[in-house]
Amino acid sequence: MDTQWPRWEVFKKDTAKKPYQAVGSVHAADADHALLNARNVFVRRPQAVSLWVAPAAVIFSRTAEQLEQGNPLPDVDQSVQQTYQIFRKATHRRSMTFMDHIGQVEAPSPAHALQAAIAQFPDPPALAWWIIPADQIISSGEDREMAAAWFDPAKTKTYKHQSAYGFVSARPQGRRRSGAKDE
Amino acid sequence: MNEAVTGALTSRLTALADDELILAQRNSEWTGHAPILEEDIALANIAQDELGHATVWLGLLEPFSGRSPDEMAFFRDAEDFLNVQMVELPKGDWAFTMLRQYLFDAYEHILIEALLASTYQPLADAAAKFRGEEMYHLRHTHLWVERLGLGTDESNRRMQDALDILWPAAGQLFVPLPDDHLLVHEGIFPDLAILQDQWVAIVRPHLTAAGLTFPAEIANTAARGFHTEHMATLLADMQLVARWEPDGEW
User: Fold this and answer.
1) Residues of B in contact with A145 (CB under 8 A)
2) Residue A44 and residue B135: Cβ atoms within 8 Å?
3) Alpha carbon distance B1, B120 (integer Å)
4) ipTM of this complex > 0.85?
5) Which residues of chain B have a CB within 8 Å of the CB of A46?
6) Average pLDDT over residues B118-142
7) Predicted confidence band at A148 (pLDDT cuts at 50, 70, 90)?
8) Domain boundaries in chain B?
9) I need a surface site. Which of A26, A118, B88, B209 has the fewest CB within 10 A?
10) pTM of the complete model
């Protein structure tokens, strides 16, 4: 039996100008709990201005390879539209984030939303897509005071930065960069 | 500030620091042992925050005491610590730890709001710095109290067991130190009787809504400085390395 709590994907917005980016997942019993866990796990170090979480189970995901097999559209009532948030992975370069939020579309199903997204956001070519119903995404909110409580403390805690752990990457004695003063 | 007020402030800063230091030590015992990875990280983070607060209070204390934060933390014996007993109790189960943290977070939340208006500027500055963190801590434990209280029969029972011990114990948070009235008079530190009313107004409705009942036992009104038998073993653990190598360089 799987005794884990459900999995939630976490999206972090680093600055006002940057998109929400998928940073990883947390297990949590419910949405509020997921947001708190997301804050603990992903915002211990700067920086962030907002968080989204969404249940992993509601994410419609397709890779470029899967899409080569087509994107079959379900037969649904076209008049019932809902908003979907669109996330795209476009590069293998970054290690810490892997999906960027690029916009939203109105569509009658996730597959329809994907079809619309492919047409609307052709560049750069996607390696993978995530389509999430907008009403399934829970946000840490716009309240300035709460945002400060959640995100500002990390900014002053420079001791939590990776760079503060100098001994982790310290060069061993005797293997200094050539041209160093003591050589 | 005259000598009597300075003395009162020295004791109060020691109490503020010791509550946070000892609670941080207890919470840190969960590192690697919390029920899930996410909570392990969360509680380690909270413990680190409380330890940070203790360091700030001990820093403010240094000009009066002449002792560095490390000296205060590692080279005092139990009878010199002014923390309340509730923070030194063993960590117990997850319900006990979450409820203790909740009761303390609610206390610290209202204390910090009051300290923002302190006439002693360093206290007001420290409060402003801690305020955001404490709002977040309180939200975290507020949520856990609700989830465990209303969760299963077992989680409710464990929470109730914890409340039966912690509700009377928390009364000690509001017992003034002998010279606190001097600080209250100067507007340096708030009147704890007023804080207690505010605290009860926050925690009582939430605990009731979480399906818990309040024990009849009267509050612990022991003066700070008296400790349970758990304090000595906690300090032995916390101070061991520093006392082995008192001149060690880190």
Assistant:
1) 135
2) no
3) 10
4) no
5) none
6) 92
7) confident
8) 3-244
9) B209
10) 0.87
